[in-house]
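Hi support team,

I'm filing this because I wasn't sure whether my run with cytidine-5'-monophosphate finished correctly. The job status page said complete, but I'd like someone to confirm that the output block is well-formed before I use it downstream. Pasting the exact inputs I used:
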Amino acid sequence: MVRGIGLKVLLVADGAGVLCHTAPLVTSLVRTGLSVRLSLTASAQILVGPYYGSMLSGHPVLSFEELDENGVSGYDAILVVPASDKTIKEMCESPAWNGVRCPVLVGPGLLPKDDNADAWDELDATISARGWKLIPAGIETCTMGALGELRVASAERCFEETMVAIGKNDLKGKRILITTGPTAEDADPVRFVTNRSTGRMGVALARMAAWRGAFVTLVHGPMSWPIPQINAIRPVPVRSANDMYKATMELVQDHQVAILCAAVADYTPVEYSDIKIKKGHDATFALLLKRTPDILDAVGHMPGKRPFLVGFAAESDHVHANAQAKLQAKNCDMLCANDVTKPGSGFAVGTNQVTVFLRGGEVRELPQMSKEDVAEKILDMVIERMSLI
Ligand code: C5P
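And here is everything the job wrote out:
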């Protein structure tokens, strides 16, 4: 995923966090094509040798004092993580830091003795007052024998928030609801009916939309694909098609875009047994199923102004005819169809090959690409088409 080409990020690594955060963070930033300059504070330099930072980033390491003396400019984003109280204080008092124009992201690291809600609130107030952004720690910690559990946002969260900060922002302020994953239709306390979806396409859409400045509500079934740790993604976990229907219909109203990508089960058991269904002596067993609510159709026909609506169709035959029929019947603005029988397209792979059917009859065939790249192309079309309606 090469999205950072031509952009420069400065990473200031402070204290003991340099042992657990800096290497994974620099490697993920460099992997996206970003040029990364690393600055180590005095306490970080005690812990790692002089070549550590230059080997990782490919550039000479800057000391924190050098930044203060020479100014902090020429970067597209600056990340300070883990940031100790001392470093945050020094940044706040330094004229060099107060003149910075690009986004500054600060991920404080709190020792167990200082880790409480008031401390985080106070840090948030100090950091936001300068127009910088706090990266709060979720449940993540960085555990070290000498310090215990340093509470700090994970390297993954810091990476994701950096990509948001340098993103093109063309979806800024837009609220997008995305459904993804399979649904699970329970028959009894241990058995359920489901399908092979991992949720990866919808997660790629959520991630790319967040990187471009959108706020995403991600209504997802029981997925095997992880949700990126990004503040702008709000996960709404559900289990059955009926749960997904209720959550979507309740939330969709205040979104400008809805992308319904979930592989919703079409049928669910007619009856749920509270106790485990016992096996009988017959050679066969019939489970009676009934239709689930069609969420895409319900959003397409909801009364009043509905969001710009994108549907997905996983097809195994007559892809074009089925997709055109679905676009019309469900009143979508766009329908993304993929042939799940083609290699490299559909469930449980990193790539997809999608044909996009647009309201008005236009059809755009996309080449096989990573799911992130497919997501970007779909979002480009959403932006292009939304400005037409
Ligand atoms: O009709 P089909 O299931 O093939 O349509 C696929 C599209 O409809 C996808 O966008 C899927 O998320 C959505 N869908 C839905 N509710 C259902 C079934 C499918 O929203 N019950």
